[in-house]
Every structure is written in C-alpha cells, then in structure tokens.
Fold these 4 entries.
Entry 1:
Amino acid sequence: MKKWMLCGFILAGLAGCGGQESKAFRNGASVKRLDGSTITSEEIDSTVKRVMRAGKVTGVGLAILNDQELVYLKAYGHRSLGKNLPLTEDSVMSAASFSKVAFAYMVMQLVEEGVLNLDRPVWEYLSKPLPEYSEYKDLAGDDRWKRITARMLLDHTSGFPNWRTFEDDRKLHIHFEPGSRFAYSGEGIDLLQLVVEKVTKKSLGTLMRERVFRPLGMTRTSMTWRFGFETNHAEGYDEQENALGPQRRLLADAAGSMLTTPRDFARFIEAVMQGEQLRKETREVMLSPQIAILSKHEFPPLSTETTEENKPIRLSYGLAWGLYWTPYGKAFFKEGHDDGWRNYTVCFDDAKTGMVIMTNSSNGEGLYKELLETLLKNTYTPIEWEGFAPYEQKN
C-alpha cells in the first residue's frame, strides 16, 4: 500500500498527513509536463501564488500526476479567512460536479456486473411508469421519456434541462429527441440516481462508500456531511471574498453533493487513470466519444447556437467525462461549479499526465487557463466553450 494511502487511513477524520507528497519537490525536484519539459516546485509555487493574488482566489488545492501516479500535491491560501486558517491537502471542500464522474465510476461497475444495461430504457428498471413518480409527473403526455437510457443520462443527451428550476414554469421538460444532441443536465444524473437506488436497493451514499470511497482509501470523502469534517473544512467565498460557509449537505445527490479533499480526489483521478475497479473494456467505453459537441458554449445547455471551432480537437462527451484530442493524445476532463467553489481536472491517457485544481472561490475559473498552460503545457483546453474567462479579462 502506498505511504500516502496508509497515512490517509490512519488519520481518517483528522486533519491529515500534512502534505507529505510535495516534500520532495520542495527540495528542488521537478514535475514532467506534456511536452516533456519539466517545472520545479519553486516555479509551481510562484505561479500558483501569483495567479491567486491576481485572480483574487481564496484557496487552491493542486495535484499533478506523472506516469499515472500522484507526484505533486499542495494546498495554497486559506480555508477560512475569518479564522486565518490555511487550506490543507486534507481540507474538506465541495466537489460540486466532480460528483458526477465519481458516480459514473460506480455506475460503470454496475454495468460491468450486468446489473445495469446502458442501452435499456431506464424506466424499465422501475416499478411503475416514470411519470407516476412525483418528481417526474411533468413528463406525462410526452412519451419520449420511454426512450431515455442510462447512456443518454451519462452523456447528457436526454433532452432534459440542467435543472428544472431554470425553466420558466419550473417544470421538467424534454427539449429534444433523446440521444440526438449534447445538453449538460444535472436532472439526467439525478434520474439515473433514482434508477440505481431502485435496482440495487441501496442508497447512493452507501453505494459510493462501498464501491468507490472505501476501496480507494478516500477516507475524507462522502456524499453527505460527516461530523469528522468539522475539524478541517473549507468555507466557500464569492467574487468579493465574502464567506459563504461550507456545504453541509444532508441529502446525497449524484449531480453535486460530494464532499472531498484535494488528496482524496487526486486519489480518485489516479484510480481512473490506472483503471482500478474497472475492466479495461469498461473504462474504454466510459472514456470513448458518445456524442460530438457542436454547441458554441457548454452553458446555457439548451442554446441552439453551434460552431465548427472545436472540430480540430474533436470535442465530444463520453460517459460523464468531456473529451478532446491533442498532439499528446486523448484528454478527458470534468468541471465542478457551485457558488463559492470552482474545480477542474484533466488527464491525458497517452502521456499519462493529469492535473486537479480545486478552489473555494467563485473566482477560481479565472486561474484555469494559466495553470493548465504553465504547469502542464496544455494549450488545447476548450476554455471559451467551457466559459472560463481568464482572470485578466475580468479585472
């Protein structure tokens, strides 16, 4: 067992190991970037601290992977400005939509075991027609719900909005033929959560703990708030660095309730890169294009504006992961966005290199471009499509 995993087990519920991963890099070692060049820990530190100041970002948790293994992990800034507490590698933060890829990892285990079929209409797993559930009564009269599959829910082609609360009438609607185009949808992930809980007869929190968090040693990760998190958690901050507090989620939501730490989520990304807990064929399906993306922007999801700009990188969506191609091979990525929290991760399969950025600031997205380009030499990120305006464009 790796030392940093053992440390996580021993100190579960406490403040953690104190950043042992980055100790060697403080002595002058270097991290390998996509183009084969290297960057020292001192250069990483100076870059992160500079862009944090310029972008007015409260705290950053940064992880870098080389050869599919975690080689750099460090936290910067504060988890609480009011109490002058530093952010640490074991501070509990909101994962936001990072939750979706962790959920998908568990779902793919169920697919592998034959518990769930990606292409079977999901309502067939339920005890009654979908509109007879109170959460889905709005779909009565639109039979397209009968065609929605788990694959469509994971690759965001169900036709649902991101959230029904954004609809004029605050009701759930299907906006296009299921499977025909990409439109990011938290509603779709929540429907799959319902199906998974019904078919397994277990709660989401239990499934994630048994199948993902515990096997991977993610000792400070949960789909809901735990008492042990009180000792070391981050507060979220808005654009003016006003405190929004932690997210003490009480209900498990596959679309966004996961609470995790930079250390734990880096461990998850390491597992995804190495293909732990999944057969090679299953992982390949998860990280293969399901739908080409032609939309001008990711948000608002239901916009019909299209573009050819991202065809050179073959922008597409797999099962819960975004995908694009570069001279360094395929990249898979995921964003996490909530009030006071901005997260991003990207991994390159062929180069076996990846990065995790977690922030407790609504300004966090402004750092992505410079961190990705300077620390990883990744100039291919679809920044405009994702809506990540660099901090210098906001100031």
Entry 2:
Amino acid sequence: MKHLLPQQAAHWLQQHPDTVFVDCRTDIEFLFVGHPLGALNVPWHQPPDWEVNPQFVAEVSALAEHNKDRAVMLICRSGTRSAEAAAALEQAGFQEVINVVHGFEGERDENDHRGRLNGWRFDGLPWEQT
C-alpha cells in the first residue's frame, strides 16, 4: 500500500487518470461535509451498526471493472478508515492501492477541530459539497 499526502495524491490522479478514486466515508459525510472532486462514494462503515460494509470489496471491484491491476486510491476523514479499507483491497488481490494520509478533513488540532492542520480540503484541493 502506498501512502500519499493530499497534494501528492492530487498529483498522482493527474498523472494516472484511470485510477479509481474512492471516498470510503459514510453517505452522509460524503454529501454534507463535501468530497474531493471526482471521488466515488463506497462506504467502509455505515450507520446505524457501524460494521464493515460486507459489499465494500465487491463494489470497488465493480468500479475498477474487475481489474485488480487498476490503481485504487482511497480517502476518508483522516486516513484511518481508508487505510483499513485499503488493506482489505490488498487482501482481495488488488495490486496498486493508495491511501490518502490525513484524509479529507485532516487530523484534530489542540481543540479537537479538524480542517485546521492538514487534509485535502485544508490544502485547497478541488472538492464539492452537495
């Protein structure tokens, strides 16, 4: 698994436009908090039980057109869920899996607030909110 900072991840996506870019946060986070432009939402966990989505690997595989050699990049809120999801894809045989370190919202600051230290949005990378 590769670990790229948001700026590096954005550069990777420009250089490798065939990469499947997956935002693995919940539907609600994806829609209301916002998401990177071009990211597709496949939740790793979903409320109300917060268990791992049993269809995650199958859904990502379908997005990759069942080609396990196709690069898959994952992002979540802070990089934790996406690293877990990336490990599951590697276990399923995906060859090039990339985790976006710091995620979309970034790490918490001294006041437990996100978005003030790092992350996709903090770095001013393209994103949208529905």
Entry 3:
Amino acid sequence: MIENLSPKQSFAFIQQNPTAVLIDVRTKIEHHFVGHPFNAIHIAWKEAPSWLENLEFVNEVNKIVNDKQCPVLLLCRSGQRSLAAASRLENAGYAHLINIDEGFEGDLDANKQRGNLGGWRYHHLPWKQS
C-alpha cells in the first residue's frame, strides 16, 4: 500500500524513522538546480529530453534499498511522478512506500508559478541547492 503524506508529515516520519530512505525522482537538473531535501537520493523516474520512464528505476532503488520492508519516501515536483514511481516499487515488492503529496515545489498557483501553495520548500523544511 502507498501512503500519501504532506511534506511536514514526511519530514517528521524521517526524523522518527532513521532507516527510512528519501528518493528524489525528479530530473537531474531539477534535483541539482531547483534544490532538494538534505539526504535525498536522486534516482530519476523520467529524464529529459526523451521523458521516457527510467527502465532501470527499480534496479537502481534495489542498489540503495535492498530491504523491501524499509520505508521508502518518494518526492518529485508536485507528487505525480513520485506516485507513479511508488506504484512501480509496490509492484516490485516494496512494502512501506510513502508518496510526498505536495512534492518539492507544490501545485501551480493562479499565476502558473510553483512554490506558493505547498511543497517541501514552501513549508521551510531543510533543503539545499547544488
């Protein structure tokens, strides 16, 4: 089963579960230049310019998280790609999956800008840029 948690709930979960793994499924450019939570492991779900699914996604996660009972949190820009990635991991046998439902930047506002309605950064949770 995939659980959906807000960024604040996800951060609290990570603090209470030090073995939990946070995977950022955004593109390399998003991860490095837009920013990412501290200790987030980058494994892209899709990558530009093709935007095709990363067929090695599960294998790459297996290299980092070999215990399928370990909690895995997934983060993207707004919570959609991470949900698709979580579904793929669920099909691969991972048992404790958490989708961060607002993502890193949150939804678009009326001006078509992100970061004003929700997301990891909006809630002032720890993050950095490369």
Entry 4:
Amino acid sequence: MSGLSLINARIVLADSIVDGSLDVAGGLIAAIDSGTSAVGEDMDGDYLIPGLVELHTDHLENHYRPRPGVFWDPLAALHAHDVQIAGSGITTVFDSVRVGSDTDMPEMGSHVERLTSAIAAGGRDGWLRAEHLVHLRCELPSHDVIEQFEAHAEHPQTRLASVMDHTPGQRQFRSLEHYKRFYSVGRTQAELERYIDDRLADHARYSAPHRAHIVRRANELGLALASHDDATLAHAEQAIADGVAIAEFPTTLEAAAAAHDGGLAILMGAPNVVRGRSHSGNISATDLVRAGLLDILSSDYVPYALLQAAFVLPQRVDGLGLPAALAKVTLNPARAAGLDDRGQIAIGKRADLVRVSMVGNLPVVRGVWRQGKRVS
C-alpha cells in the first residue's frame, strides 16, 4: 500500500486531542506528530478520529427485506448497506444476521445463507468499503436455531454470536401490553393470543437447551459471545457463568450493574443516546454513562447515530471528554470483539481513519480511510 500523510488535523488519541499530522505506511499508522507540516493532504483543522467499530446493526437485513414479503438481491442489498456504513464513518461492521425461523420468516435458513454468502463474496472480490464481519443473532425459542447456527458458526467472517429470547413477558418485553402493541399489526385479538401462547410454548421447550448448546459451541470455536436484553440479576448471573463478553441492551440498571461488575462490556444503542431515551421504554443509555456502566455503543437501526452519539455524549455528561466518548464506538468494541489491531490512533495500529467536520453541533463525515486507502 502506498504512503499517506494527513496534515493540519485535530487528532483524537485514546486520552487526548493533539493538533498535528499523521503518516501511514503499509496500511498502518507510522507516525503522529504535533505541530505544523507542509507536506500532505490538508485536513483544514478538522477532527481525525479512528474508524468506528460497529458490533450490532440490523441494517443489512433492512436492505435485504425492505418491505414484508419483498426480498432484494443480496449483493445489491450489501452494496447499499456498505455505502451507508462507510459514509457514516464505520470501517469495521458486524452485520447482524438473525438465525432461527418463526411464523413471519419460516425459511430463515435460506435467507441467512444468501446474506452470509454475499458478505463472503464482497470481501473476496474486494469491492466493500468497510470490513464486514458476521454477528449471528440466535433466537433461542426457534425450533431450527441450532441447525442454522451450526451451518454458519465456522463461516470465515463469523466472529460474534448473541443469545436472544423475545418471548412475551420477559427481557425486552417484560410488559405484555408492550409486546401486544409491537406484534398486533395484521393480527386479530384472537390471532394475537394464539401467537403469544405459541411463543410461550416454544420458550418452554427450546430456550434452555438451545442456549446451552450455542454457548458451548461458541466457546469451543472462540467466538465472542453476547447476551441480549438482560433484565434481572439472574439474567446477568447466567451471562457471567456462560462466559459472555458483551451484555447487549440491558433493560434495567440492576442487570447492567451486575453484568458490569462481572466483567462484561455493556453495549447500548446509539439512537437511545441521540433521542435521550429508549424507543421501548427501557433504561436510558445516557443514564448508564453517568453511572459509569456503559462501555460500547451500537448504531442498531440508524448507522449514522453511532458517530452522532459519540459527539452528543460530552455535551450531556459532565466530565466526559471526546476521547472517552469516541472510545465507546472505536476502542472498546474492538477490544470486546478481540480485534486488537484497530480502534485507536496509535503507532502500529491499522490506519482506519475518519475526517469529521463540525457543522454547528453536527459531526459531518468528510473522508474515510480503511488501512490507509480512501473508501468514502
């Protein structure tokens, strides 16, 4: 790879911001110098930050299935997704792919195959802007989740698996009324009640043995493991006992505190920060930051929210500087996923870089480099 010099930048390091220049050689950061330099691409005083690391986004599935019953060409869906991801400053993305069929998606296995094959092809053929890895979101009460997990757990891009259970009356849907509002569209009251009864029966039959299998296999394969929507002390204790690394979207302060004390990295949604509250009425991510209990942000359903939240947090949380806020979308997710070669601007790390201008309070992406190569 050819060399690259970026000058006149506000460079955000792990614990400080320096005005200066940065040199890249062989796709790695080779030098960071304070002061002025006359040779290189002028950043005009803009921020230079590490490329963002996204562990949980459903956006690929949204491009693949833009409307109920409408399925897009998977490579075209991946291309559209990739353009938006890179344009939002994300250089490493874990594409969340749900495994486990249900009544809405009775043949989920075939869709998972199309999506993971597209990710592999895009990486192999070299046209992806960001680096795309796979996050298997395992719906435990599904009858075929084990079959689908095993089909893709050893996929070269698979690096993360999460154990989920969206059974009514627990975790994200502890409020049965909230669950009914969420799933009532297109169903009569009688159909909704039957649907709930079926979900409760599936949970009783499948959830515990499926969780045990996936946890064991993920640990055998060296996959990072995440729990999802932990709501109680018992949920957190189970995650700790299972060797989980990441607690995704804990719904209560109790669960978040217990998981954090147990050594898990706490992940919450960046849209929660931007909006100032959870869309489902659960705990505020900003409140967890104030309590010292939030390690990682995820864009979840709005890719640009990841960058926006990192710049919003220092305005809302006293004593939180920009380097610490950006670590929640760069260094911390990289470490939690075992990617120690990226996530910070430091000598020898990957030259995954983002140029950011401030337009009022809005961070605007003006350039993105992955391993020193301009991709957006």
